[in-house]
TrEMBL record:
This protein's UniProt keywords: Amino-acid biosynthesis, Arginine biosynthesis, ATP-binding, Glutamine amidotransferase, Ligase, Nucleotide-binding
UniProt subunit comment: Heterodimer composed of 2 chains; the small (or glutamine) chain promotes the hydrolysis of glutamine to ammonia, which is used by the large (or ammonia) chain to synthesize carbamoyl phosphate.
MF terms (GO), sorted A to Z: ATP binding; carbamoyl-phosphate synthase (glutamine-hydrolyzing) activity
Organism: Phellinidium pouzarii
Reactions this protein catalyses: hydrogencarbonate + L-glutamine + 2 ATP + H2O = carbamoyl phosphate + L-glutamate + 2 ADP + phosphate + 2 H(+); L-glutamine + H2O = L-glutamate + NH4(+)
Family note: Belongs to the CarA family.
Carbamoyl-phosphate synthase small subunit N-terminal domain ranges (all copies): 24-165
Protein name: Carbamoyl phosphate synthase arginine-specific small chain
Coiled-coil regions, chain positions: none
EC numbers, comma separated: 6.3.5.5
The protein's enzyme class: ligase
Keyword ATP-binding: yes
Length: 430
């Protein structure tokens, strides 16, 4: 009797009918034809994106606000996501304030995919749940799907374009192959980079220019904490016009294909041939340095995203010791091509222990330059702090270089590494 009164449930909705209504159903479509049905949360809006997976266990708040995830549908391989909620994304206001507690002002990925969304959360700094945060930021999510199956597909066939269909769109047909939006065809960096230069910690003792390809806030914090005065410039700003006003140049992380930023690589090529002060780049910044040095960049099959990527140091420099393995935080789809020989004046710095991809390059001792690029994220947020001292290495080099240039200025007193307030490297849970 009772069973006869239940309407027939379309195949797509089976398994969810007991605790969802069609309005909170979601389907993740992959361009390769697979589809996964689950329960919607967050914004009730359908989106397109590039489906990628991250093996990070914690820090969903940091990953989701990392501008490098722009245009991507982020699949978490860790099943339980949301259990510590979301903090207020506002930094305490002081002279060194970078404006936010997380990695940027808003959620940057297009959507998220989790196996088991925690609606109940518990953390002393949490102010809301993951789903209410997504709703406020107009970002949809899907839960109750087999993220192991999705990850296996993405590992085997590579990062795949996707569609997260929510609400009424759930019942419409799967998108045709040519309907999928491909974020790599757009210059995502141009959408996210600052449009006007700004300064942080103006009274810092060493002046560093930061080319902003979509900077993570913890990069800015890591420089400011080491008392650098930083000027953040748009990604395509020609630093050569102002370079002598600065003691060092930093190139940030950023979303999309590095070849969309060839203009920056060409500007940097001129900087590197005409200017001898320290230069450091992270992720996209490292790829730009590599392209300026004459290396090629390629698209990896599924990239590296997670906080547990081991890299082997091939050379010693500052806090980094050749032969040691460092566990690193990563989020990238592209990498520099390993060439043999390496361009003159350059050498490999790190190599990935899992897939042997290039994880870092540096200028050789003989070149007389001080240039480093790393594919991973020493600033963490989230992830291990194994390589955080690379910021100290860079800022100290900028300071030393400044002092060498001002040898006859008695006002300038060297600041040694021991006076810097950087934390001791501690490996935290990956
Ligand atoms: N985190 C980053 O800077 C990523 C760089 C580049 N967008 C890539 O995917 O490889």
């Amino acid at each position: 009797m009772f069973f006869r009164s239940i309407p027939r449930i379309p195949a797509l909705f089976r398994g969810f009918a007991t605790h969802t209504s069609p309005s909170n159903l979601a389907v993740l479509h992959l361009r390769s034809g697979e589809q996964f049905s689950g329960k919607a949360f967050g914004a009730s809006r359908s989106i397109w994106g590039e489906t990628v997976f991250s093996t990070s266990i914690t820090s969903y708040t940091e990953s989701m606000t990392d501008p490098s995830y722009r245009g991507q549908i982020l699949v978490f391989t860790t099943p339980l996501i949301g259990n510590y909620g979301v903090p207020l994304n506002r930094a305490p206001t002081d002279a060194r304030d970078v404006g936010v507690l997380l990695e940027s002002k808003k959620i940057q990925c297009s959507g998220i995919v989790v196996a088991d969304l925690a609606e109940k959360y518990s953390h002393h700094s949490a102010v809301e749940s993951l789903s209410s945060w997504c709703l406020r930021h107009d970002i949809p999510g899907i839960t109750g799907v087999d993220t192991r199956a999705i990850t296996t597909i993405l590992r085997n066939q590579g990062t795949t374009l996707g569609r997260l269909a929510v609400g009424p769109d759930v019942v419409s047909r799967a998108p045709a192959e040519n309907e999928y939006w491909d974020p790599s065809t757009e210059n995502l960096v141009d959408q996210i980079s600052t449009k006007i230069p700004y300064v942080l910690n103006p009274n810092g003792d060493v002046k560093i220019a930061v080319l902003d390809f979509g900077v993570k806030a913890n990069i800015l914090r890591s420089l400011v904490r080491r008392d650098a005065a930083i000027t953040v410039l748009p990604w395509n700003f020609d630093f050569n016009a102002v370079r002598n006003e600065f003691d060092g140049l930093f190139l940030t992380n950023g979303p999309g294909d590095p070849k969309m930023c060839l203009e920056a690589a060409l500007n940097l090529r001129r900087t590197l041939t005409q200017w001898d002060r320290p230069v450091f780049g992270i992720c996209m910044g490292h790829q730009i340095i590599g392209m300026a040095a004459g290396l090629d960049a390629y698209r990896m099959t599924f990239g590296n995203r997670g906080h547990n990527q081991p890299v082997l140091a091939l050379a010693s420099s500052g806090s980094i010791k050749a032969g040691r393995v460092y566990v690193t935080s990563q989020n990238h789809q592209y990498a520099l091509t390993l060439s043999d020989p390496f361009p003159a004046g350059w050498e490999p710095f790190f190599i990935n222990c899992n897939d042997s991809s290039v994880e870092g390059i540096k200028s050789t001792e003989e070149s007389g330059k001080k240039v480093w690029g790393v594919q991973f994220h020493p600033e963490s947020a989230g992830g291990p702090l194994d390589t955080i001292e690379m910021f100290t290495d860079f800022v100290v080099e900028c300071r030393m270089d400044m002092l060498r240039r001002s040898n006859d200025d008695p006002e300038l007193v060297p600041i040694g590494m021991e006076t810097l307030s950087s934390p001791r490297p501690i490996a935290v849970a990956a």
